[in-house]
Design brief:
Elements: H1 21-40, H2 45-71, H3 93-111, H4 117-120, H5 124-131, H6 137-159, H7 164-190, H8 211-247, H9 250-253, H10 258-265, H11 278-306, H12 312-315, H13 330-353, H14 355-358, H15 362-366, H16 369-381, E1 384-388, H17 398-402, H18 409-415, H19 429-433, E2 439-443, H20 454-464
Helix pairs in contact: 1-2, 2-6, 3-13, 5-7, 6-7, 6-10, 7-10, 8-16, 11-13, 11-16
């Protein structure tokens, strides 16, 4: 019996075009920059500084030049050309190599930072200027992370320059990453204040509302520490529900969050890789909400322990004569396990390492407790929705292709149904990619939020007649 697999592979109707010489030149600079950084990791002390900064200069120049040449020369717009034909964006060899390199970097960063010393030491001067202390692995990581957001943010600005919403949104994540996640924490350390990230809130930064962290901030930060505690509590428990009511979860996930910043800039080219199947959606529900429930439970138990409601041996490692394991109480052990498996392995190693294979929002979609919290508010209490005009939909699939959260947007658009999903981060790319103006991001009234427009229903009836 003849099977499908017995037929020879058919060539593409439009073969992948050869890379232009100018593009190769810019990409060569990127490759030379990465090579210089690789040389830095094994270079002697006298050469590692020049090699490091040469690598950063080549990498930055090549990325900005390539972005300008690739997206800034032709007409603006969302182009899906050959995404599933290129090795780098179709889970080919280049994608696998990229994923392995990213995963390896995170593993070394978290557990063997001594192998990154040659990359850390060239940053001592910058770290001393900003933080008044030598560089460490986290300063290296923060610098690389911020540089990636800025460089690939420039790429996104070129690519989506025709869309005011995308320009503002991209500029916003670049601003918050540079100012609130890199510069401000460093300046706080320079002033001998507690390091604090004003753009991260509980439950994403889960320990910010733990009793031990609150006590540390108030004790070491004094008046500023009291403000930090107040800021974290108000933003987590008051401002988040209010802002989500008016704007949906996009106010944070697509405009502020550092995880979202990297996904929306460096991960933009991998949007189409997100799994749109119902099985993936089931796994999303099975993972993200239990993670949120776990951190809520741990936070509540810690506060009950601090209030003396629970036995001290269960919540504190400072109780004497009580059963502890390696000096850690059971509840502290649970928080450490969470930090290891969810905070490190899931959000870092898997979350970023899986970009080239599963899309850029794996962490946001399957693991982030903040996304789960915001998603529940968005789905049940928010005014935000994406309205659709089914009568204009031509079923091109552009909207589903760019959805990084695994939502099959086309299915909603074809039926003229508003999109109200807990997963949606409001990036707006589905609307930007639509050639017919079918999709619109709205903060409309709650009434009729789940209903299709009567005009669309009437149009559908006329088509049927």
């Amino acid at each position: 019996m003849t099977t499908i697999s017995s037929f020879p592979a058919q060539p593409l109707a439009h073969p992948t075009p050869a890379t232009a010489p100018a593009e190769r030149g810019w990409l060569a600079l990127v490759a030379l920059g990465l090579l210089a950084l690789l040389v830095t990791a094994a270079a002697p002390a006298g050469l590692r500084g020049p090699a490091f900064w040469l690598g950063i200069a080549l990498l930055s120049t090549g990325t900005l030049g390539w972005s300008w040449w690739k997206f800034g020369q032709g007409p603006a717009g969302v182009r899906h050309n050959f995404l599933w034909a290129r090795s780098s964006t179709a889970r080919g060899a280049v994608a696998w190599i990229t994923g392995i390199v990213l995963t390896g970097f995170y593993v070394v960063l978290y557990w063997w930072p001594q192998y990154l010393e040659n990359l850390i030491r060239p940053l001592d001067g910058l770290s001393q200027t900003l933080r008044h202390r030598p560089a460490d692995q986290w300063f290296l990581y923060g610098t690389f992370y911020t540089l990636a957001v800025l460089l690939m943010g420039a790429r996104a600005l070129y690519k989506y320059r025709h869309s005011p919403y995308q320009r503002i949104r991209t500029g916003s994540v670049m601003f918050f990453q540079l100012g609130f996640s890199w510069l401000l924490p460093g300046l706080l350390l320079a002033l001998q204040k507690p390091e604090f990230y004003f753009s991260y809130f509980w439950p994403l930064k889960y320990d910010y509302l733990f009793p031990g962290t609150v006590d540390y901030l108030v004790r070491d930060g004094r008046a500023l520490g009291v403000f930090m505690v107040f800021w974290g509590a108000v933003m987590s428990l008051v401002a988040t529900p209010v802002l989500t009511y008016f704007f949906g979860k996009r106010w944070y996930c697509s405009w502020v969050c550092g995880c979202g910043a990297l996904a929306e800039t460096a991960g933009d080219q991998y949007r189409h890789l997100s799994d749109k199947s119902r099985t993936a959606w089931r796994w999303e529900v099975r993972l993200i909400y239990p993670i949120l429930g776990f951190i809520v439970l741990v936070t509540a138990l810690l506060w009950l322990g601090a209030a003396g409601v629970l036995p001290g041996w269960f919540t504190s490692s400072h109780s004497s004569g009580l059963p502890l394991v390696d000096g850690v109480s059971p509840l502290e052990g649970l928080s450490k396990v969470y930090g290891f498996f969810i905070g490190s392995i899931f959000s870092g190693v898997i979350g970023v390492g899986a970009y080239p294979l599963m899309g850029a929002r794996v962490w946001c979609r399957f693991g982030c407790p903040m996304a789960a919290y915001l998603g529940l508010l968005q789905k049940h209490f928010s005014r935000f929705r994406i309205s659709t005009n089914g009568g204009q939909c031509i079923s091109c699939g552009n909207c589903s292709n760019v959805c990084e959260m695994g939502i099959d947007v086309k299915q909603y658009a074809q039926r003229g149904e508003p999109i109200i999903r807990a997963a949606c981060v409001g990036c707006g790319l589905c609307s930007t990619a639509c050639p017919r103006g079918v999709l619109n991001l709205e903060n409309g009234p709650r009434e009729g939020r789940y209903q299709a427009s009567p005009l669309i229903s009437a149009e559908s009836l006329r088509i049927l007649e």
